[in-house]
Design a protein that fits this description.
This protein is mainly alpha-helical. Helices cover 71% and strands 0% of the residues.
Length: 111
Amino acid sequence: MRLRTLLAPLSLAALLTFSMAAVAQEADFSDQELDQFVSAQDDVMDIRDEYVQRIEATDDRDEAMALEQEANQMMVEAVEDTGLTVETYSEIAQAASQDMELAERIQDMMN
């Protein structure tokens, strides 16, 4: 049995992307914070993609859990390496999910 049904695809990625952190509707993030977010987002998604494949390829629950923990730590480090805290990263992600203007601004920065 594949473990994808047992483990959420990398809980930190889900937390970082869909955080329910309390964020003001009109959040104001600096260009520097948004640049850091974009950089972190690229790294987090690369790590997530790699580890989802590795987790789905194993039938060993313990190995899958170890891989998930390893991926979570790598994602935290990727965020922190940009100079953002995980909390700020989560706040930006949440704000962008609620504010189309911010989401478009981030999308423009990613291109």
